[in-house]
Protein 1
Amino acid sequence: QVQLVESGGGLVQVGASLRLSCEVSGGTFSTYQMAWFRQAPGKDREFVANIDQSDRTRHLDSVQDRFTISRDNTKNTAYLQMNSLKPEDTAIYYCAARPYYMYDYTYWGQGTQVTVSS
């Protein structure tokens, strides 16, 4: 079965950087569109960024100039580079995978906590 494992979260101060990783096993990573979502306490889950099989990316407007999604098909891993972190970035970050033949994200990781302290 397909498994997604996130890592790289933590507690940082305002302005710091973090790089989240999402390693995928049990499937064909190169055929998946990959995405990052986040959920802050008391709020709905929101889309952060995605990257398709051709490395085309899309980012949430509020993170466009600070976050960058990428992927390495040789390592079956997607990344989210987060710079200039703000307190409002505090959330659990989830990665998700959408096979090319599916309309929605089918596989999800367990999440990694990012806390930005002021």
Protein 2
Amino acid sequence: QVQLVESGGGLVQAGGSLRLSCAASGSGFSINAMGWYRQAPGKQRELVATITRGGNTNAADSVKGRFTISRDNAKNTVYLQMNSLKPEDTAVYYCAADVVYRDYEDRSWGQGTQVTVSS
């Protein structure tokens, strides 16, 4: 089974930047799309950005122009560069990966990393 491990969260002032990383470990798999989602207190989990294996990206309107998703296929790692952070970006950020095993495909999730933006 794949394990996704996130890093890079923390506390930052409004206008600041953070870079999240998520690395997939394990064996016997390949990864199609990867992405980042977030969940603020009292709210549903929402999509932040996704990226295909070929590098096509999609992002929520609320983060376009501020957040950039990228990936390193050789390292099975996805990144989220977050600039011009706002207090409303405060949430737990989760990494997701569509993992392809020999006989089936499944979505795996990371444990989440807290991002807090102070005003």
Protein 3
Amino acid sequence: QVQLVESGGRLVQAGGSLGLSCVVSGRTLSAYPMGWFRQAPGKEREFITAISVSGGSTYYADSVTGRFTISRDNAKNTMYLQMNSLKPEDTAVYYCAAKTEGLDYNVWGQGTQVTVSS
């Protein structure tokens, strides 16, 4: 059974940077496409970014392109999200997710809170 655990969320000032991690346990990370999502209060969960199994392909939502960077270290079973130039509207609970079966994200972490103060 695959489990995902996010960490790194905290309070940060606007314009600052923050790095999130997602550790995969139960199976090797190298088997799965992965992604990051976020959910702000009162809003639906939204896609932020995704990365292929090898890490050679990445995809970003327009709202974070040029500011956020996704990466993975399959040897460490860990995926990362580097967030720069943070804005108050980036405030949300951030989730990592994996596609372990089929085309949909079916395994989710518990989330980590990121709060950006103005």
